[in-house]
Amino acid sequence: MSTANYIQRVSDYCSQNKLKFTPNRAAVLAILHQHQQALSAYDILAKLQQQQQNTKPPTVYRALDFLLQYHFIQHIESSSRYIIGHQHAPFTPQPLLICTDCKSVTQIGLSESLKIELDQFAGQQGFKLHSQSYEFQGLCSGCQQGQVS
């Protein structure tokens, strides 16, 4: 889907749900959609400053907060980067496979039975999960092949 179509879809969703989808929020989301890779807030700021020279960090952080709150993007805790969801917005945050060499990020589905099992295991430990952010680090297939010599 093109970035313009994606942004329009998010804009329509926000209108239907009475959410304020500002031009800055749209610009940040467009940057993430165009790059299709995990970016830091400062990576996003640098790209946004190419379009709007006087953009300051709080502008980006406010946009990211909104986009996170309504599940248009996902925060990668281990590297403080952001990635757009591969499903239609808004999406359910997915477990992530993170390559420690090339830093690529792949979202994967988690079966409902595994989610239930994790909740039950946590409950047996007297722990209640309220946020499921699963990040698995390792080597992607491309980096594994690069190591074979």
TrEMBL record:
Single biological process term from Gene Ontology: regulation of secondary metabolite biosynthetic process
InterPro entries, per the entry: FUR, Fur_C, WH-like_DNA-bd_sf, WH_DNA-bd_sf
Gene Ontology CC, one term: cytosol
Family: Belongs to the Fur family.
Cofactor: Zn(2+)
Identification of the protein by name: Zinc uptake regulation protein ZUR
Organism annotation: Agarivorans albus MKT 106
Keywords, sorted A to Z: DNA-binding, Metal-binding, Repressor, Transcription, Transcription regulation, Zinc
GO MF annotations, alphabetized: DNA-binding transcription factor activity; transcription cis-regulatory region binding; zinc ion binding
Residues reported to bind Zn(2+): C99, C102, C140, C143
